[in-house]
Amino acid sequence: MKLQGISGARGIGAGTVYVYTQEEICIDRTPIEEAAVAGELHKLDDAMQTTIDQLTEVKAKAAATMGDAEAAIFEAHIMIAQDPSLLTSIRQAVESEHKSAAEATEGVIESFAAMFSAMDDPYMRERGADIRDIGDRLLRNLLGMTPRGLAHLSGQIILVADDLTPSDTASLDATVVQGIVTASGGPTSHAAIMARTLAIPAVMGVGDSSALRTGEQAVVNGTDGIVLTELSDDEFAQYQEEGTRYRRVLQTMKESANLPAKTKDGHDVLLFGNIGKADDAAKARELGAEGIGLFRTEFLYMERDELPNEEVQYEAYKACAEAMDGRPVIIRTMDIGGDKELKCLALPKEMNPFLGYRAIRICLAEPDMFKTQLKALLRAGVHGQVHIMYPMISSLDEVRRANALLQEAKDELAAAGVAFNGDTPVGIMVETPAAAMIADILAKEVDFFSIGTNDLCQYTLAVDRMNERIGQLYEPLHPAVLRLIKQVIDASHKEGKLTGMCGEMAGDPMATMILLGLGLDEFSMSATAIPMIKAVLRSVTVDECRHMAAKALTLGSAKEIAAYVTRIMTEKGIEL
Predict the structure, then answer these.
(1) What gap in Å lies between CA 101 and CA 143, rounded to an integer?
(2) Cα 140 to Cα 145: distance, rounded to the nearest angstrom
(3) What is the Rg, in whole angstroms, of the alpha carbon atoms belonging to the chain?
(4) In this protein, which residues make up the domain named Phosphotransferase system enzyme I N-terminal (predicted)?
(5) DSSP type of residue 34
(6) pLDDT range class, residue 63, cuts 50, 70, 90
(7) pTM of the model
(8) Higher pLDDT, 75 or 160
């Protein structure tokens, strides 16, 4: 039997299925009496302290098994749990609405999580799961239930779940868990990110996973996004051998992570990292990143009751610039959508937020807020090679209006006698078909392009890649997408500008040779993907890649292109 899903982490894993389920949380919604309020508040305080203690322990375990960068998510969880606004909101619901502590917690957590889950950026949208993870832990402590966890697993396991939270994955042992399968989620879910960090093959979004039963043998093909069962002993043994070989290849790649990103014929390629916080920059450097191709700034807005001021932002951008020690740091201006229930910014509800009031559209409508961020970025440029990048551009007018506000920010800093870098490079994300089609015009107005393939693919193909029912239609190697990418690169090169890529496609080894052949100058990706992409680049010549790209552009479908890439990689002995 074969289940089709979405690739979350590459590789082959074979083992025995373990279906992970949790005792359901049941909440009594009967209003409490006034006399019971004090007792409920005491229970809440005790449960919150237990939650913080548990998260501190989980953070220490995650640091020991996965490293400080991965453990940082639990530091963020601790900060959220200690956020006075969270506890205050729960207490108010108990005191004024006479809800039990559990019911009040459930409602407040869901409200907080909804702010993230409604995000247009898939990465940010998945962070709603982090908030719900904290709420789940707090509720279980309130109700005297056992916390989530997978530390008890042993043997060679294929882990199957509806979804996995950070608390679930913190205790995963990569020598035990050979593969992960989730019914929901996609490549930017926490489960997928952790699977890639731990090099565990993973398939996400299979939909109904009830066909997989605890105790049966299964194979996870994370590369192709499929799960296989009902295999013969010989077939199962063959997949086990493939999985072992894949892990050996990955280890070799990691050991050579700091070798130059240089093709066989001596062509240097820029490999950068995507990060969400300044603290992530050090991990990117460890894995071979030569710069930061995308610093998402949304967390600065989402973690606060009030808009982050210039100093708060300046310190964050400065920290990242200093961590990269003179290497390029491309910082994307605020990319938040129009249906966000942000505590710091009132935004209207919308029928279609993916096509609505978001990103640069909000910034241009809120010039004071935008200039605050621009000033912080300009000031941070004194401490390193900071680049500013505008998201969601679809017209020349947007670029010119944004640059006019940037000039105002410079003028105001100069008038105040504040140090800043007046020559800070400015670029745009090319993530709408409109921007791709007028790339020749836009290239005259900016210093660089960075192609955001997540949205470019989504808008070009009219496919929501987080929708499990149509996830298979999301095809980055689709001929239409490749032709748009080529058009953008050609337009930038004609004006003597560089084009990078910061979407998931940049970290997909199936696309590496084609993208280099199309002329892509810089690849930016999750840091854990860098060793694999570097290994591909060191195995090829530029001429080979150009020939491959030209051939790919003549093919009629993503499947034909993928088959062609697979054949070439096999012929060249590239094992991925």
Answers:
(1) 10
(2) 5
(3) 24
(4) 4-127
(5) G
(6) confident
(7) 0.73
(8) 160
Residue 332 phi, psi dihedral angles, 5° rounding: -80, 130
CB 112, CB 134: distance < 8 Å: no
Phi-psi region of 199 (alpha: psi -120 to 50; beta: other; left: phi over 0): left
Active-site residues: which are they? 190, 502
446 and 470 both lie in a single domain: yes
And the tokens for 143?
A: 């109700």
Q: What mean pLDDT is reported for the chain? A: 89
What is the rounded CA–CA span in Å between residue 558 and residue 481?
10
Angle between helices 509-518 and 542-552 (to 10 degrees): 100
Residue that is last in its domain, among 110, 142, 174: 142
The Cα 433–Cα 444 span in angstroms is 18
Total number of domains in the chain:
3
**pLDDT(340) > 60:** no
For residues 284 and 527, the answer to whether their CB atoms sit within 8 Å is: yes
In tens, the pLDDT along 279-293 reads: 888 878 888 899 999
Q: What is the pLDDT of residue 123?
A: 60
Q: How many residues are present in the chain?
A: 576
Q: Domain check: are 422 and 483 in the same one?
A: yes
Hey, what amino acid is at 347? L
CATH number of domain containing 432: 3.20.20.60
Can you tell me the distance from the alpha carbon of 198 to that of 177, in angstroms, rounded to the nearest whole number? Answer: 10
Order across the sheet with 2-4: list the strands. Answer: 2-4, 226-229, 217-221, 12-19, 157-161, 177-182, 202-204, 6-9
Cβ(268)–Cβ(547) under 8 Å? no
Q: What mean pLDDT comes out for the span 453-462?
A: 93
Q: Are 219 and 228 in contact (CB under 8 A)?
A: yes
In a domain, 102, yes or no: yes
pLDDT one-digit tens code per residue, 409-451: 999 999 999 999 999 999 999 999 999 999 999 999 999 999 9
Distances (CA, A) of 386 to 137, 204, 294, 333, 542: 39, 35, 11, 12, 29
| Domain end point (choices 109, 142, 175) | 142
Residue 472 has pLDDT above 70, yes or no: yes
Is residue 99 assigned to a domain?
Answer: yes
Extract the tokens encoding 527: 């840091």
Q: What percent of the chain has pLDDT over 70?
A: 93
CATH, residue 179: 3.50.30.10
Residues 237 and 359 in one domain: no
| Residue-number span of the structural domain to which 50 is assigned | 34-142
Question: Where would I find the beta strands (DSSP E) of 105-262?
Answer: 157-161, 177-182, 202-204, 217-221, 226-229
3-state secondary structure of 136: helix
Residue 17 located in a structural domain: yes
What is the rounded CA–CA span in Å between residue 269 and residue 251? 22
Residues 340 and 166: their CA atoms lie apart, in Å, by: 23
Residues 118 and 206 occupy one common structural domain? no
Q: Which residues of 437-450 are buried (b: 16+ CB within 10 A; e: fewer)?
A: bbbeebbeebbbbb
